[in-house]
Amino acid sequence: MSGHSHWASIKHKKGKADAQRGKVFSRIGKQITIAARSGGDISMNSVLRAAVDAAREVNMPQENITRAIKKGTGELPGVTLEQCTYEAYGPGGIAFIIEMITDNKNRASSEMKHIFSKFGGNLAAPGAAMRFFKKKGVATISIFKTEEKKEKFNEEELMEITINTGAEDFRMEDEECALIARVEDFNKVKEALKNKNIQIISAKIEMLPENPTPVADEKSAEKMLQLVEALEEHDDVQDVYANFDIPDELMDKLSQG
């Protein structure tokens, strides 16, 4: 529960990339379109409902949401999108998983190869990197009890919330706390948070590294974050996961630089 995990490192870089509203809307729009293929009614399609909730959390205009749904159901013309996952190794043998939604898998594969080659890495065979990760539900909440941010939950209270909602663990990062849950328990955890009137900042299924590899050298850490940033800036990339761990002090130093 302590230390600067890779999970937090990715959040740091992702927050920077997601400041670009257009890129965020495009990314979530693709998720909505893919989900809507199984039906455009959010009351009957839980995956679509989750994607639409994510869109609303970032204030995506309703017309964008509606258009993305109609592209998925075929009511509006659009390119054919495919979901694909790439596994790779970065410098130092760090394992990566890249989840994408693209209209051209051959181009996406070529561009992933180019990015990893540039940073001294390479794409890997299916399963080669996946074995270092575990699929988990991650519900992120604020550590503040109210929107006024006058009072914080203490560690004991967060542990109590974790236990009472059925989550397995929690991790703190700045002003947020992530509850980690088994995938099969994730909906129950989200409902329990809502019943306790605890606002959920985000909730999604993620690939969390089981035994992160420490990266304490400044040059290596900087190169690793540059690789993550290059991947996140790709228009088709939805999520990037890797099993490195950068210490708090070094991460703070790199953030300030």
If classified by CATH, what would the architecture of the largest domain be?
Answer: 2-Layer Sandwich
- Name of the CATH superfamily of the largest domain: YebC, transcriptional regulation domain
Ranges where pLDDT stays below 50 over 5 or more residues in a row are 1-6
Radius of gyration from the alpha-carbon trace, in angstroms: 19 Å
Beta fraction of the residues?
Answer: 15-25%
What order do the SSEs take from the amino end to the carboxyl end, as H and E? Answer: HHHHEEHEEHEEHEEHEEH
Number of helices: 9
List strands and helices in order, with pairings.
Blueprint lengths: L5 H12 L3 H16 L9 H12 L4 H12 L8 E8 L5 E8 L2 H14 L3 E3 L8 E10 L12 H11 L3 E5 L2 E6 L4 H10 L4 E10 L3 E2 L3 H15 L4 E6 L1 E2 L2 H9 L1
Parallel strand pairs: 8-10
Antiparallel strand pairs: 1-2, 1-3, 2-9, 4-6, 4-7, 5-6
Helix pairs in contact: 1-8, 2-3, 2-4
Structure characterization notes:
The structure is a single chain. With about 260 residues, the chain is of the alpha+beta class. The protein has two domains: about 1-5 and about 80-255, 2-Layer Sandwich (Alpha-Beta Plaits); about 10-75, Orthogonal Bundle (Arc Repressor Mutant, subunit A), CATH 1.10.10. About 45% of the residues lie in helices and about 25% in strands. The chain contains nine helices and ten strands. The chain has helices at about 5-15, 20-35, 45-55, 60-75, 105-120, 155-165, 185-195, 220-230, 250-255; strands spanning about 80-90, 95-100, 120-125, 135-140, 170-175, 175-180, 200-210, 215, 235-240, 245. The strands form three sheets. A four-stranded antiparallel sheet has the order 3-1-2-9. The chain has a four-stranded antiparallel sheet with strand order 5-6-4-7, with helices on both faces. A two-stranded parallel sheet has the order 8-10. Helix 2 (about 20-35) runs parallel beside helix 4. It is globular and about 50 Å long. Residues about 1-5 have low confidence and may be disordered.
